[in-house]
Design brief:
The protein is an alpha/beta fold and about 350 residues long. It has a single domain (about 80-335), classed as Metal-dependent hydrolases (TIM Barrel, Alpha-Beta Barrel), CATH 3.20.20. It is about 35% helix and about 20% strand. It is built from eleven helices and 15 strands. The chain has an eight-stranded parallel β-sheet with strand order 1-5-6-7-10-11-12-13. Helix 3 packs parallel to helix 4, helix 4 (about 125-135) packs parallel to helix 5 (about 160-170) and helix 6 packs parallel to helix 8. The protein starts with a strand and ends in a 5-residue tail after the last strand. Keywords: Decarboxylase, Lyase, Metal-binding, Zinc.
Length: about 350
């Protein structure tokens, strides 16, 4: 049986510096600990999200993994910390702090954790430099947001970043943040249930329609939350490409450029899992739970476990092998209970 790797998990240092006090600006995420077991993430003096000690406590995290039958977690920053809006020197400082924090956790627990970094996309040149440093300190990929200050990911300024990720073999995990229609989604918590999936679809559509994926044919990208609504609107994108030839930017329709798209399994429903498998192939689906937040799947991979229509081979791939393939980690570098110190 393959090792179970939870690809979609977030972490945040308890001692995250208070950049609001240091630099001002009002939009920095500030972690205010309420007790030993919980804290509030504050933004501009308002509650952004209540979190538990699972967000920062590695020991607690490992206890949860053992209880929930997870061999390894791929850990990445909490998206609110991207801070693409900030002055580049300040945003870089925050990126470095988080990247070093994650790299140290991986170094201290190489059998339990794999790390993804973050880069300040508001300055592509600096972002590429930090991406290179992430690789040097042992991080195997980069988590990025779905837009940069309202600009979609097909912005011309961002193409060098995608080219660099392709060259460095640093796969990208794209997670929604600063979602569209924010003025229409606060009610009913639609920001999380409607806004995030729609935001992810817009990001994915931008990459396939614009020619980014055509120009970066070897770039690997994984989308959070099963790709949001993207898998279900992909035929509509193709139809648009067919009927509007004057809008085309690529030689082939959008669906042609999804060959290196991966999707986490966080869709909560067997029918949606089957749809992802049928459209993209089981080798492109990676188990992910969104630990430790409220909308996460407990236990990680619960829906997959309950699907008797999937073979053991397919389940082994989704539970662990696909994550390793996506992250360019060789199976032989996975030892004992997880990943060795060897670089892929």
């Amino acid at each position: 049986m393959a090792k179970r790797i939870d690809f979609h998990t977030h972490i945040m240092p308890l001692d995250l510096p208070n950049f609001e006090e240091k630099y001002g600006g009002g939009r920095w995420p500030v972690l205010e600990q309420k007790c030993s077991c919980g804290a509030d993430i504050m933004v501009a003096g308002k509650l952004f999200r209540e979190v538990t000690d699972q967000v920062w406590d590695v020991k607690k995290r490992i206890e949860d993994m053992d209880r929930e039958n997870v061999d390894m977690q791929v850990i990445s920053p909490v998206p609110v910390t991207f801070s693409y809006w900030a002055p580049i020197e300040q945003a870089l400082e925050l990126s470095i702090y988080q990247n070093d924090f994650i790299a140290n956790i991986v170094k201290e627990n190489p059998d339990r954790f794999i790390g993804l970094g973050t880069i300040p996309l508001q300055n592509p040149e600096v972002a590429i430099q930090e991406m290179r440093r992430c690789k040097e300190i042992g991080l195997v990929g980069i988590e990025i947001g779905t837009n940069v200050n309202g600009e979609n990911l097909d912005s011309d300024e961002l193409l060098p970043v995608f080219k660099a990720a392709e060259e460095l073999e640093m796969p990208l995990f794209i997670h929604p943040w600063e979602t569209l229609a924010q003025n229409r989604t606060p009610r009913h918590n639609f920001l999380y249930t409607v806004g995030m999936p729609s935001e992810t679809a817009l990001a994915a559509a931008s990459l396939v329609w614009s020619g980014v994926m055509e120009k970066c044919p070897n770039l690997k990208i994984c989308f959070a939350h099963g790709g949001g609504s993207f898998p279900y609107i992909l035929p509509r994108l193709d139809q648009g490409w067919n009927v509007w030839p004057d809008k085309r930017k690529t030689e082939h329709p959008p669906s042609y450029y999804t060959k290196n798209f991966y999707f986490d399994s966080l869709v909560y429903d067997p029918q949606n899992i089957n749809y992802l498998i049928e459209r993209f192939g089981h080798d492109k689906i990676i188990m992910g739970s969104d630990y430790p937040f409220l909308l996460r799947e407990i236990n990680p991979g619960k829906v997959l476990d309950e699907m008797d229509t999937l073979t053991d081979e397919v389940k082994d791939a989704i539970f662990g092998e696909n994550a390793l393939n996506f992250l360019n980690i060789k199976k032989e570098d996975v030892v004992a209970n997880g990943q060795s110190n060897a670089k892929a």
